[in-house]
Amino acid sequence: MGFLSPELFGGEHHRYPFETDAEGFRNPAVREPIDVASLGDSFVEAMTSPREESWPARLEQITGKKVQNYGTSSFGPQQELYVLQDYAIRHQPREIVLGYFAGNDLFDAERFDNWEHGGDKPGEEPTGWRLRKKYRRYETLYLATLARIALPSSRPLQEKNLPGTPRDSLARARFDRGAYEIPTAFGIPLRFAFMPPYLQKLASSRIEIERSRGWELVRGALLKMRETCAEHGSRLTVVFIPSKDEVYWPLVERSLGQEELQRSLDFVSTYNHMPLRAADIRANRLAQNELIREFCAAAGISFLDLTPALEQAAASGRPVYFPDDAHWNAAGHEIAAQELAKFLARQP
User: Contact at 8 Å (CB) between 158 and 175?
Assistant: First the structure.
């Protein structure tokens, strides 16, 4: 995906064991029966975190239920359907929890459909967003060479006091070569970078999403999951996982002045030369949330949106994503586990 300048975030490395069960998923062992099967992509598999910090593992610790992790990085809805049919459902789970990631599940649905119909193998397309053949913990997200060319070295770009910030704290908002530093209402700054494709996805209108091939494929996969669950006496719950860009955007827009905000978007746009406007992101940021929520309601599928809980934590100064990566940190996984535990406890 490219790299930010190392001086912005440093290059700290984290090592931890990674193990899979006999079925190839991130569990100590295959268990039968299980109570909860968690499906999804890297936000479920949690390869950027120790297993015990992942939300499936934390959900098991919180509830005492047997929660098996069937997440697989880079998978989209159709592949997750196959995992449900070929692996998870045979273990007789009462609950099937699908983590729907707003950042790329529409794209992944189209990508996999193209491959199933004779196109390039996922990740090897000649155009578009290419995926790494090897998975690793990327410390940064942008091209360092681009950062050096596009912007001068670090400079204090914008300072602005926020309502509710203690008077004696230095509340500063700045953008430097792909990295934001944003004060929160309690004076605790957040430092982070956005993933350009995910930020651009926020500018897509509901009509654009509804008319996309990806949305058609997602709907089809969710309906087939619902049918599979019904046939085996399981209940399907879709958990909406927002991108970091969606969760942190309100802080960015509130903190940076209009000129500085647009300058940061212009920098992000150099990723693939697709212009971005703050007004489009503001108008459409929650379009995918609403679309999935309404679809699930009409289809009789349980739905949980994690966006409000994550936004609340971020607004208080608690980072819920890695600063230089698109995935949840331990706090993000903990919030997901706590919210899901409360949600499942309310179900009949």
Answer: yes
How many structural domains comprise the chain? 1
Counting every residue, how long is the chain? 348
Report which secondary-structure segment, H or E, holds 332.
Answer: helix 330-346
> Could you list the residue range(s) of the whole structural domain that residue 38 is in?
20-346
Element (H, E) at 240: strand 235-241
CB neighbours (10 Å) of residue 95? 22
Give the 3-state secondary structure of residue 106. helix
β-bridge partners, 181: 174, 191
Residue-wise pLDDT tens digits, 266-317: 998 887 788 999 999 999 999 999 999 999 999 999 999 999 999 999 999 9
Give the phi and the psi of residue 98 in degrees, each rounded to 5: -105, 120
Is position 316 within any domain? yes
